[in-house]
Amino acid sequence: MSDLFALPYPVLPHELSRYAFLFDIDGTLSGLRPTPSEVQINDTVTRFLAFLSQRRIPFALISGRSILDIDTLFLSHDVPCAGVHGAEIRYADGKYERLAICGSDVAHVWERLKLACMRYPALRLENKLISFAIHFRDAPELAAVAMWTAASLAELYPDTFAVQHGKFVCELRPVKASKGAAVEKMMMSPAFCGRTPVYVGDDITDETAFRVVNEMEGFSVKVGDEETSATHRLKDVCGVHRWLDDLMASAAAGCRVPAQGADKRSS
């Protein structure tokens, strides 16, 4: 793991056309909200993604959200993305794939999960069809209950589900799904192949992606001050937005992001 305070600001030394950008959404491109439906996308993010599209620089969104939810949030149906922690992927050419998962197990787990959480109305359940999240942001005192419930169900269906922990959430995701695997697949696709990956994320769910990007000698960027395997760091979501603005301004000026001023902002 990287030293908590020694990670540098992500200065990209080459033209942006040499990179492929991969972003987590919640806690990275947008601030966390009590419910996913309350999240809105900042204008800087919208401008940056349009900036990349205009220059044919590949980018993808790698999220715990479903692809349907990502499309609703970004008002688009063609952005390359991986949803449900990589359980489903849509590539730049529109090709869609989803992990095969036992339908009867999915149905049984959802019914058991609803029954187990009936005693705790402060826990909010989210059904992503092939993955189930237990949110406890509004009731952090129920974290242990949520984690125990998820772990118990995963133990009953070990070939189908694994527990994925996140910020104020634990999730039963398909056992073979991970953001790291999604990044590997995306980077092997024609639109991304041969580029240097730049992955930005904030949560423990992003650590598998950081490790994959590190193996590819790319740029892994942690948002926040938690311990991480990423090689670079941005302080918070506002820091991400400033970095995106810097990238656009520097590209327009034909230079890289200035390191000296940026380092001060990331500390």
TrEMBL record:
InterPro entries (alphabetical): HAD-like_sf, HAD-SF_hydro_IIB, HAD_sf, OTSB-like, Trehalose_PPase
EC number: 3.1.3.12
Alphabetical keyword list: Hydrolase, Magnesium, Metal-binding
Function: Removes the phosphate from trehalose 6-phosphate to produce free trehalose.
Family listed: Belongs to the trehalose phosphatase family.
Pathway membership: Glycan biosynthesis; trehalose biosynthesis
UniProt lineage: Bacteria, Pseudomonadati, Pseudomonadota, Gammaproteobacteria, Enterobacterales
A biological process term (GO) from this entry: trehalose biosynthetic process
Domain of life from the UniProt record: Bacteria
Single GO MF descriptor: trehalose-phosphatase activity
Entry keyword annotation includes Metal-binding: yes
Underlying gene: pnp3b
Keyword Magnesium recorded: yes
Biological source species: Enterobacter agglomerans
UniProt-recorded name of the protein: Trehalose 6-phosphate phosphatase
Catalysed transformations (reactions): alpha,alpha-trehalose 6-phosphate + H2O = alpha,alpha-trehalose + phosphate
Pfam short name (any one): Trehalose_PPase
Record SUPFAM superfamilies: HAD-like
Cofactor requirement: Mg(2+)
